[in-house]
């Protein structure tokens, strides 16, 4: 879609909308893949990220595509709603990453406690 906007659209405003829509669609599709990858390792927040990103992409990018391709400008009222959903997805993804890091730190602390006080952080017994 971005290539179409660059080469075939004469209106610079419409071209900008379509290019922005394509950029945000790509970025947030990658964020969906990231959140899906984190679902197996982190908490419930990872499940909510794609649920916010997908409709956010549809509303944000979809409204920009529609306006750029000639729909009524009133469709642009959906753009901020999509933007809020995209922000909610990023918040859920950040919480998910934080939960993942916290669980890893917890596992490392449990492993150190299980090793006992006579071992260093490398796991080698002290003389």
What report would you give on this structure?
- The chain has a domain at 16-103.
- Helix content is 76%, strand content 0%.
- It has 4 helices and no strands.
- The protein has helices at 2-8, 12-38, 45-68, 78-115.
- Helix 1 runs antiparallel to helix 2 (12-38).
- The longest helix is centred in the last third of the chain and has 38 residues, at 78-115.
- The protein is elongated and about 70 Å long.
- The mean pLDDT is 84.
List key phrases describing it.
4 helices, mainly alpha, elongated, 0% strand
The largest sheet, given as strand count, sense and whether it forms a barrel, is: none
Instruction: Report low-confidence residues grouped into runs of 5 or more.
Output: none
Which range does the strand content fall in? under 5%
* C-alpha termini separation: 66 Å
How confident is the prediction overall: mean pLDDT?
A: 84
E-strand count: 0
User: Measured on Cα atoms, how large is the radius of gyration?
Assistant: 22 Å
Overall structural class, as computed from helix and strand content, comes to mainly alpha
Task: Write the element-wise H/E pattern from the N-terminal end onward.
Answer: HHHH
């Amino acid at each position: 879609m971005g290539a179409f906007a660059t080469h075939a659209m004469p209106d610079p405003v419409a071209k900008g909308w379509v290019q922005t829509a394509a950029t945000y669609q790509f970025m947030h599709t990658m964020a969906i893949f990231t959140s899906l990858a984190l679902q197996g390792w982190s908490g419930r927040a990872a499940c909510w990220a794609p649920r916010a990103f997908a409709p956010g992409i549809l509303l944000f990018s979809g409204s920009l595509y529609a306006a750029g391709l000639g729909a009524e400008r009133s469709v642009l009222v959906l753009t901020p709603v999509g933007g809020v959903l995209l922000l909610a997805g990023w918040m859920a993804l950040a919480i998910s990453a934080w939960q993942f890091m916290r669980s890893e730190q917890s596992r490392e602390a449990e492993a150190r406690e299980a090793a006992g006080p006579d071992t260093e952080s490398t796991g080698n017994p002290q003389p």
